[in-house]
Amino acid sequence: MNKGWIYREQITLKEAKRTILDYYSQRYRHSSRTQWQQRITAQQVLLDGYPTTVDTILQPGQWLTYYRPPWEEPKVPLSFEVVYEDSEILVVAKPSGLPVLPGGNFLENTLLGQLKKYYPHETPIPIHRLGRGTSGLILLGRSPISRSHLTKQMRQGKINKIYRALVGKSNLPDRFFIDQPIGKIPYPILDYIYAATPNGLASHSDCIVLKRTAKTTLLKVTILTGRPHQIRIHLASVGYPLMGDPLYRVGGIPKSYQEKENEKLPVPGDCGYHLHAYRLSFNHPFTHQPIEVVCPPPVQLQ
Asked: 60 and 85: one domain?
């Protein structure tokens, strides 16, 4: 059981003129309208620091605070390996199944939560993200200055990230590029989800076939942009979703219907796909010396 969490958010002009119940039930659809009503009535939700009611109309600038009581988090692999470390940066190899940041039902059972136990007097912050089901290398800054330098490198495309990915049997060329735009689209159980969409942000992936078998194609993928779930979406957009991907279908769009009665729709954090952050290179934020680290892939991606 964790210690619970406090969520605070300020109401914008766009979000105003709705009741508190409408706000939570429409914005956070992981819980039902009845569940949100019960929480507000139980005074787990405060408005500007005071108890409120379900039919209170929200005004711009007001603050909502939701006190989430302690809960039992899902079991995940908690071990990780520090691949590189100095006073300013960390490079960590995380296992598939371990979320990077708190979200949903995960708080302490995350990479960030575990790092706080090993580094109690600082807060290493990820410079980029990996999906929960993705294994491999992630770069973290240990100070505000190092994070600023590394984030600038990320924006300028100077941090090189190479992945191993597994798709089904294919007739893909030995080398190909994908430039499908990626953006937000509505999703039934979430406010939105990232997917292939013509009005999305520019996204670029460079793909090389490493090995072909009777049932699979092993790829080396270098991402030149860092859109959420980029590799999953891009490969699905050209007709080859990652093997085992429970979410993205051919075309780079999510599964948005139930194939069986009472079937739970997948979400981005669901695992099962084969993707590994294999190689990471960047310049040290202070010495400016190049650093390259490699994390051997799991057997299925070798």
From this structure: no
pTM over 0.85: yes
Phi, psi of 22 (to 5 degrees): -60, -40
Give pLDDT tens digits for 62-82. Answer: 999 999 999 999 999 999 999
Full DSSP string of 241-293 = PBTT-SSEETTTEE--S-SSTTPPPP-TT-----EEEEEEEEE-TTT--EEEE
Give φ, ψ of 213 to 5 degrees: -125, -175
Cβ partners under 8 Å of residue 124, min gap 6: 90, 112, 115, 140, 141, 142
> Collapsing DSSP states into helix, strand and coil, what is residue 115?
helix
φ and ψ at residue 45, rounded to 5 degrees: -115, 130
At 205, the amino acid letter reads S
CATH number at residue 245: 3.30.2350.10
The answer to whether the CB of 37 falls within 8 A of the CB of 56 is no
Structural domain count of the chain: 2
Task: Supply 127's token pair.
Answer: 């410079």
Between CA 198 and CA 182 the distance in angstroms is 8
Q: Contact 222/161 with Cβ under 8 angstroms? A: yes
